[in-house]
Design a protein that fits this description.
Elements: H1 3-6, H2 10-17, H3 21-32, H4 37-44, H5 48-56, H6 58-63, H7 78-96, E1 101-102, H8 103-120, H9 137-147, E2 152-153, H10 157-160, H11 163-180, E3 187-196, H12 205-210, E4 222-230, E5 236-243, H13 249-253, E6 264-267, H14 275-296, E7 303-307, E8 328-332, H15 338-341, H16 348-368, H17 375-381, H18 385-398, H19 401-406, H20 413-417, H21 440-449, H22 456-465
Parallel strand pairs: 1-2, 3-7, 5-6, 7-8
Antiparallel strand pairs: 3-4, 4-5
């Protein structure tokens, strides 16, 4: 499907998919004369979603007066190029002065330069409105790679994380593992992530429309998910999910019982994991599940749960574990070292979000293919929190054992190297010995097949935005 549209000749295929203003106006004119969307899609060799998008923007497109053959696109503008050039000069000046720059400082400066350039730029009646520049994490990553800057630290995390202390903790951790005779099947890590479950890349027209809408914006609808698995990567624990509504309307419409979900459902106004919620999860999900897993695999009844230092995981958590699960010991990572040592933070959560986005795009494609449904109509009538919950199961299952096990390479290298223990060899788990495939390329292909403007940078930016 997508390979035909993305295939060889990358530049030429991209040109084929672009529509000039003249052609877009021609499409609008034909539609107003009674030509159906499906027929227009065949005539111009584009998806029905693309045609619908053009028709949604018809007032704007009809008002544009440009030279014949001009293409409306959101490629990097001259202002954007100039901003990055000036920004790089400013960074080099700061580096020569010996100043340490963080991502936040650079992003703020980029916005200032961009705004200054836009104010100085003379405008004409035929100009396409320059979109507001937003210094997102995705933009910063791309700028960092393109410019080659290296003395920059995101939000100061790595700067504040004491590398020496991290090394000392890794040593103490290894000593604990050896002293208590823990094996990878008995050591677990849990971490939380935010998920804007309806969020789309910035360049889709529905995102642009939502920025102008007052009140509640569906794409800002967020939930928090706590994911947990062991170091051997052969056991994933039932996740904890926190949403802002205890009983969403969609639950009643689908006759859904929270007790039957593949995750523990909890709710509070901010959709945050609280201390009490986490204690419930440890005693009602984690404890029973790992006890059954160890007994079925005839392993000693002892477990180490590795957590980061956040209010939901206070030091007193050990005292709140039920008596029947006291074989669980809790170990906290040192402060400010999540980015260095937390296993789930080493590509596992990022991979999950990419896989979720893939299934979101696929759901949209499956529902709208061969229909005249627009993205907004799909959003409103064919995708709700129930579909989201069903879809969360898929990416969590698809996070591979290789990804989960490799996440321990910084904190516990021996667990990653030791791939010959029971249930983790080539004969029993083929995927462990196969390279993981980054789903970004598949997401981009799906997006383009639906007529969306999307590239790898957009997807990586979207993944980063979930933590905003």
């Amino acid at each position: 499907m997508s390979s035909k549209k993305v295939g060889s000749g990358k530049d030429s295929s991209k040109k084929k998919r672009m529509l000039s203003v003249e052609l877009k106006q021609e499409i609008i004119e034909k539609h107003e004369r009674g030509v159906r969307v499906m027929e227009l899609a065949k005539i111009y060799d584009h998806s029905t979603s693309t045609i619908c998008t053009i028709l949604k923007q018809k007032e704007t497109i009809k008002s544009v007066k440009v030279a014949k053959g001009t293409v409306i696109t959101q490629q990097r503008s001259a202002i954007h190029e100039e901003m990055e050039n000036l920004l790089l000069l400013w960074i080099k000046e700061k580096e020569l002065a010996g100043d340490m720059l963080t991502e936040t400082v650079i992003s703020e400066k980029a916005c200032i330069i961009s705004n200054d350039l836009k104010q100085k730029e003379p405008s004409t009646s035929t100009d396409v409105v320059e979109p507001e520049f937003k210094a997102s994490h995705g933009w910063f990553d791309r700028f960092k790679k393109q410019s080659g800057i290296h003395s920059v630290v995101r939000h100061g995390e790595a700067a504040s994380a004491d590398q020496k202390a991290a090394g000392e903790f890794i040593t103490r951790f290894a000593q604990l593992i050896e002293a208590e005779c823990y094996i990878p099947q008995q050591v677990f890590n849990c971490d939380k992530m935010g998920l804007f479950w309806k969020k789309m890349p910035r360049r889709t027209y529905i995102t642009a429309e939502e920025t102008k809408m007052p009140g509640h914006k569906p794409m800002k609808d967020r939930l928090t998910l706590a994911l947990c698995a062991n170091a051997s990567s052969d056991f994933k624990v039932k996740p904890l999910l926190v949403y802002h509504s205890e009983n969403p309307q969609a639950f009643k419409a689908h006759r859904l019982l929270k007790e039957k979900l593949h995750m523990m459902w909890r709710a509070n106004p901010k959709a945050w994991v609280t201390r009490q919620f986490f204690i419930y999860w440890v005693n009602l999900c984690f404890g029973p599940a790992v006890k059954k897993y160890l007994q079925e695999n005839k392993l000693p009844l002892q477990v180490l749960l590795v957590l980061d230092n956040v209010p939901a995981h206070p030091p007193g958590l050990q005292d709140n574990i039920r008596e029947e699960y006291l074989f669980i010991k809790v170990l906290y990572l040192p402060p400010n070292m999540t980015s260095i040592l937390q296993p789930m933070d080493q590509q596992v959560i990022s991979n999950f979000k990419k896989l979720y986005t893939k299934h979101l795009f696929k759901r949209y494609f499956d529902v709208t293919e061969n229909t005249e449904l627009t993205l907004r109509e799909f959003w409103k009538e064919h995708f709700n929190i129930v579909q989201c919950l069903r879809m969360i199961d898929l990416p969590w299952k698809e996070v591979t054992r290789r990804t989960l096990n490799s996440a321990w390479k910084k904190l516990w290298p021996d667990a990653v190297a030791a791939r010959d223990f029971e249930g983790f060899g080539l004969d029993t788990e083929t995927e462990t010995n196969m390279p993981d495939v980054d789903p970004v390329h598949e997401i981009v292909s799906l997006g383009k097949s639906m007529g969306l403007q999307v590239d790898e940078g957009d997807i990586n930016e979207l993944v980063e935005e979930h933590e905003e």
